[in-house]
TrEMBL record:
CDD domains in the cross-refs: PBP2_Arg_Lys_His
Residues of the signal peptide: 1-18
Protein name stated in the entry: Polar amino acid transport system substrate-binding protein
PANTHER family, per the entry: ARGININE-BINDING EXTRACELLULAR PROTEIN ARTP (PTHR35936:SF17), MEMBRANE-BOUND LYTIC MUREIN TRANSGLYCOSYLASE F (PTHR35936)
């Protein structure tokens, strides 16, 4: 009898371990139904949305994702895989089931991916040294401008100065682009407004300033990104709306940005 039990335990362990290798580890929920763990990818070098702090991925997106997944009743795991790999992984349908990374919803990306309803409004800003003569986007002409490769920041600069422009320097992530600005490798960095503002605020010793230019930089919205046709999208959309309507969104927003979000603007987009 006892032997049988030991055998059963070993067998159960074996089965559990065997399930751990793939993308979505199968789990068994209370009612015996198979439940999938959703794997979410991110590029954790984009504070305050996602960044590494003492070995953990933290940020506005991380808290928001957690609220959404809880609302949707989905178990998940967040993986830091880097920006370009996010797009490749979703396209190949391997490694991750969705991505959250301050990702702007736009028509070009919509051809290849599905997006959730919008959850954050953004625009671009120019980061420069405090004593820089640059005052707006047009002043970037003839200057070396750093952008994160494959971002809408890159697209915004290319729209102004042409895609072939040799003065646009592309970086693997936004942190290294800002490092290069500090080291004098570029004259400016164009990135998302919240990221630019956060950097200036948290690093007064670096003597940088963030410049806005609504005449040249459009407003855009972030969404969670899925492979085309993902069956997670309807569930996640529903959960996002609930998180926004319930006030949970405002709570998370205040924690990271210190003020009230313009929820009406977001709801108008949905
Ligand atoms: N919002 C911009 C875009 O979608 C930049 C996002 C970069 N995010 C990141 N985690 N590095 O292109």
């Amino acid at each position: 009898m006892k032997k049988g039990l030991v055998f059963a335990v070993i067998l159960a362990l074996f089965v559990a371990l065997a399930g751990c290798g793939g993308k979505s580890a199968e789990q068994t929920s209370g009612n015996g139904e198979a439940k999938k763990k959703v794997i979410v990818g991110t590029d954790a070098a984009f504070a305050p949305f996602e960044y590494m702090d003492k070995g953990k991925i933290v940020g506005f997106d991380v808290d928001f994702l957690d609220a959404v997944m809880e609302e949707a009743g989905l178990e998940y795991e967040l993986k830091n895989i880097g920006w370009d790999p996010l797009f490749a992984a979703l396209q190949e349908g391997k490694e991750i089931d969705l991505a959250i990374s301050g990702i702007t919803i736009n028509d070009k990306r919509k051809q290849t991916y599905d997006f959730s309803v919008p959850y954050f409004e953004s625009t671009h800003m120019i980061l420069v040294k405090e004593n820089s003569p640059i005052k707006n986007a047009l002043d970037l002409k003839g200057k070396i401008v750093g952008v994160q490769n494959g971002t809408t920041g890159q697209a915004a600069v290319e729209k102004l100065f042409g895609a072939e422009n040799k003065n646009i320097k592309k970086f693997e992530n936004t942190v290294v682009a800002i490092m290069d600005l500090l080291n004098g490798g570029v004259d400016a960095v164009v990135t998302d407004n919240a990221v630019a503002n956060e950097y200036v605020k948290n690093n007064p010793d670096k003597k940088l300033k963030a410049i806005e230019d609504p005449a040249n930089f459009e407003s855009e919205f972030y969404g969670l990104m899925f492979p085309k046709g993902s069956d997670l999208k309807p569930k996640v959309d529903e959960a996002i709306k609930k998180v926004i309507e319930s006030g949970k969104y405002a709570e998370i927003y205040k924690k990271w940005f210190g003020n009230e979000p313009k929820v009406d603007n977001l709801l108008k987009q949905q």
